[in-house]
């Protein structure tokens, strides 16, 4: 299977879009150039963008809470730039997401074993099989799905932690930060005082001369300029803890959701279009006080089966179809 990934370089205008593979194993992304030094993690939401014919709309959403299939990526992108200008480290607890602002702090729970961790989103992706998040290798190890490659997961935004991380990142600038990083300023020129060190015990020394201030010499044409104190980038904060919480989980199933409709008639018409693909049902649910009719194919036995059904559904003229876990 193939996927695409956007990568943005800090201070550069180049954006790469490359197809790459994914499956039962690490999800690979487009490889940007190796990072020459430290990365500057900026605050970034980003403009709508298109990958493989699909449009994505980055935005802030403090209510974000989604279930689906998670994957992971690692060795092929070690020490390369992430989409917000940090440097990817597969041994830190980070992740790629298609639309959340960067950075964001999310809680990711493996719905198959209950293992749950906090993760910092600092990259874009994944773009394969309707995956909802791509974890670093370390994060996937902590959740227990690095070997199988994918898992049913829940991803929930942590609002206070996200606001704190974004506040730090905004100090490094960025297109949505509202201001540039603070300029470098000259180091203050202070009066220097000469002072002798005390003699070692038992040593005979002459009486020290009185201390007096030595004023800084005035600059001349031959004098070098005073040293500058560069304003370094604000780090993204300490690495997130590797602490794993085990939460109770219930049995879940994988479906392909073809759409959600306000009209039952429209849902039934969609169902009729898709009956040749496999078991399809219409389910009524209440969302924000409104009746919504969901059209779903399944349940499906595995991620591979879900990927196959998703491809067939999209091929039947339903490009908005996606994999869901419920």
Strand content: 25-35%
The tally of beta strands, per DSSP, is 19
Helix content: 10-25%
Order of helices and strands: EEEEEEEEEHEHEEEEEEHEEHE
Decide which structural class fits the backbone: alpha+beta
Q: Please indicate the count of domains.
A: 2
CATH H-tier superfamily of the largest domain: RlpA-like domain
Count, helices: 4
Gap between N and C termini: 24 Å
Mean of residue pLDDT?
A: 79
What is the fold named in CATH at topology level of the largest domain? Answer: Barwin-like endoglucanases
Largest β-sheet summary: 6 strands, mixed, barrel
Order of strands side by side in the largest beta sheet? 5-9-6-8-7-10
Shape by Cα distribution: globular
Uncertain runs with pLDDT below 50, 5 residues or more? 1-28, 181-209, 220-224, 226-230
Radius of gyration: 27 Å
Q: What's the CATH class of the largest domain, please?
A: Mainly Beta
CATH architecture type of the largest domain: Beta Barrel
């Amino acid at each position: 299977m193939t996927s695409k990934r956007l990568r943005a370089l800090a201070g550069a205008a180049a954006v790469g879009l490359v197809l790459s593979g994914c499956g039962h194993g690490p999800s690979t992304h487009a490889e940007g150039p190796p990072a020459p030094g430290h990365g500057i993690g900026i605050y970034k939401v980003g403009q709508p963008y298109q990958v493989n014919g699909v449009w994505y709309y980055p935005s802030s959403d403090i209510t974000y809470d989604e279930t689906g299939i998670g994957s992971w990526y690692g060795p092929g992108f070690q020490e390369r730039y992430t989409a917000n200008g940090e440097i990817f480290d597969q041994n830190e607890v980070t992740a790629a997401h298609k639309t959340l602002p960067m950075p964001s702090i999310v809680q990711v729970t493996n719905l198959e074993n209950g293992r749950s961790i906090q993760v910092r989103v600092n990259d874009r992706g994944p773009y394969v099989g309707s995956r909802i998040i791509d974890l670093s290798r370390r994060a996937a190890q902590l959740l227990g799905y690095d070997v199988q490659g994918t898992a049913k997961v829940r991803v929930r935004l942590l609002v206070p932690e996200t606001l704190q991380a974004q506040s730090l990142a905004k100090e490094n600038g960025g297109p949505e930060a509202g201001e540039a990083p603070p300029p470098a300023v000259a180091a203050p020129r202070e009066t220097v005082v000469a002072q002798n060190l005390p003699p070692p015990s038992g040593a005979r020394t002459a009486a020290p001369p009185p201390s007096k201030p030595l004023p800084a010499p005035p600059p001349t044409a031959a004098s070098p300029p005073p040293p500058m104190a560069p304003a370094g980038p604000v780090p993204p904060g300490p690495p997130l803890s590797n602490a794993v919480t085990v939460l109770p989980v219930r049995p879940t199933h994988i479906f392909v959701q073809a759409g959600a409709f306000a009209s039952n008639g429209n849902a039934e018409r969609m169902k009729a279009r898709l009956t040749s693909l496999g078991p399809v049902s219409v389910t009524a649910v209440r969302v924000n006080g409104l009746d919504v009719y969901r059209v779903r194919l399944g349940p499906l036995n595995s991620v591979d089966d879900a990927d196959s059904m998703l491809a067939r559904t999209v091929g039947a003229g339903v490009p908005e179809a996606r994999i869901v876990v419920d």
